[in-house]
Amino acid sequence: MQPAGVARRLLRHAAQPLAAQLPKLLSAGGALAVQRPAAGEGHPVSDEELVRGGTASAPAVEFLEHPDLAEIVGDLSRPQKRLPTRLLYDERGSHLFERICETRDYYVTRAELEILSRDLDDIAGFAGAGAGVIEPGAGCGCKTRELLSALEDPRWYAPLDIDPSVLWRCREAIRQALPHLPLVPVCADFTQPWCHAGLPVAERRLLFFPGSTVGNFEPVQAQRLLGRFRDAAGPGGRLILGVDLRKNAATLRRAYDDGEGITASFNLNLLARLNREHGADFDTAAFEHLAVYDKALHRIEMHLRSRRDQWVRIGGCRFHFAAGETIHTESSHKYLPGGMVALAAAAGWQAQKLWMDPQRRFALMGFEAAPRKQPNTEVKEDNMAATKKSSGGRRYGKGAARTVASAMRRRKRGTLKSGPGGKGGTVRSRKQAIAIGLSEARRKGAKVPPKKAGGGSK
Ligand code: AVJ
Question: Cα separation of 127 and 368, whole Å?
């Protein structure tokens, strides 16, 4: 990486307001609140100013002050180069994505719409009456229009999108179809915290996250995102989640490298965007689109492959590309329904409903916000539940529950021994751990039902 003074200066002047930089504003009156940042507009800067805080070999922090640019330079500096997936969605990118959805090869949108129209009443019933609907990454809101018109007495619709131009169009489309529904558009990056506290009241909040966008995150990040949604939904909140299901690699590769070449343009637009907005000098003709299925990680990846050995400048840095070297731009994880149930459960969502298309390519899943547990009591509560279950619902005294919970913890740690004085082997079975816990309780004089003949905990 080398700083390039001229490029840096150009960059300063060419700085443009980007969606991610826009203040995350809420407007309750239905007007779209999009403001240009006061700072960051191009203004003449002296070289002295430019060098402040930086050296010839390490660019000043201020050149990378745009959060996107800092991230881009970091991502291109990795051994496997990559770029932030969200940057695919500028005005042109969002438009190209809508065209992808119309291609024959990209089955995802069609499969989802099929479920939405077939099971609309059931889905609307699950959402319940009087819901406020939040849609992160709303796009044009076409899918939502159908859902909104089927809902009973929806209170408001809050589309979130990183791209203000998309939000404008979404607002117009929804206004046309549902002129009386209050609209609360939010210009925000839904992967970052945003102000959901300011939303109007409703019977309950419904998070609508279709399109399998959740698949674009690594499972750990997906869990964190669903956890954020759980916070935004609040008590009694619901989630309707679109999930693309595992299927053969050939179908997936075709879906992400369509015959009409729209996905290729969509992917390559990312480089054109970096040229437009960050003064980069990518030769887009020197890169090609690639879709690769990773069988071990169950995900289809989009890459941009360098057709030749070349250098590219961006953010005052130079990056080398060997011929055939790739930039990883997107991953789309494919799930089994049970896998998503577990992932969402870890984020505080209880699975309630599963709707699939007849070919089982895609799933819409319905979740309800799980009641909040006190931190640190989870293990105990779980074990009390286990005690109740394996005892046929009988209630023990608090003392017994405590010794059983302790025995269960020791079993998990592998330190629970059976036999008199713990001289037997390590206890593996749940049932035996419960029995040991109960006999400990009995020794301490806690209230425990008498042992049945034949032993055991029942
Ligand atoms: C809408 C983000 C889920 O991953 O299937 C389509 C994006 N990328 N073709 C997907 C996309 C390439 C799409 N998501």
Answer: 10
